[in-house]
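Before relying on records like the one below, remember that each one covers exactly one chain. Contacts with other chains, cofactors or solvent are not represented anywhere in the record.
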Amino acid sequence: MIKEFQYYCRHNLGLAESTITEYGKDLHLFATWLQATAGINRWSQVTRPTVEQWVSSQHCNGTAPATIKRRVSAVRRLYQYAWLQGLCSENPAKYVSTPKNAIKLPNVLQLNDIKAALNDANVGLEIRSLIAVMAEAGLRISEAMRLRHNDFNTTNRSIRITGKGNKERTVYYGDATAQLLEQGGFDGTYIENQADRQIRYEVWQALRNHSNSEKCNPHTLRHTFATTMVENGAELNSLAIMMGHASTKTTERYVHLGSNAIRDTYVACAPNLN
């Protein structure tokens, strides 16, 4: 049933492949625990106390709260699938509480350090283009690496992005990205001929050469974008749309916002890299 559930997640829910893989690992781990510790051999025998006992055992083993939360989510979704298939009448994980994640502040970079990397003649055009669009639009590096000239709408400086789970969103970019685009950036030739790891390394190196921050990995650009937007007064619902965050509860709060409100927030609060 785990394989069937993963197929459902992939083709019906459109979840990211990495999430589906982790769910599979979580469920196999749960199944092993059920057999070895609880003496349960059928999914239908699982009750809410069973799931709570499993959560408690993970606490005792020192499992991180975020990991426990994901594992319970995997079990909960498995039983949602089973209910849809008529294989069970209730979800034993539905009301099981999960630990709160510890608040971890994201690593961010100074805008002047990013500007210095963008003005570094020793950094290739394509790498500078990636840095600019990640810092100005809050993109993941995987999203930025797929961009080509025809993906940009230069009239209103917008980009249509396909993010995690094949979910589409519109983001906006600023002057630094526009200038690099005019210079021939986002041609894609260099990116296509390099390994993913090599591109990430070159982005890291370009940033590290101009920053004293301990962490200069590409994702810090995304964190820097979000942090700068908030500090400049960005409305969180619009920001969540720009970032492509997948929280259903958050989506319910901001789904009514129009694209004009989102673009206005971007123009008012985006990082200035000029």
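The longest strand covers residues 158-162.
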